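Quick one: structure tokens for this chain, please?
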Amino acid sequence: TVNLWKQMLGAVPEWVWEEHAAILDAVDAGDGDRAQEQARLHAEHGERLILDAMAARAADGAGEDLATSG
């Protein structure tokens, strides 16, 4: 997954690690509802970032490289 980020964005955004920490904090606190909400938000943020990056790469003609790399 990190390699996909690096391919698409050049680096893993800091907010990714901050959101991971928020999920872990909720789990550590035993707050399942908050952990679930943080995980859901994180997945939505990641989805949007990935889709936007893929669209930008496709517009630049680089989408095929990403689609064929494993």
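The CA atoms of residues 53 and 59 lie 10 Å apart.
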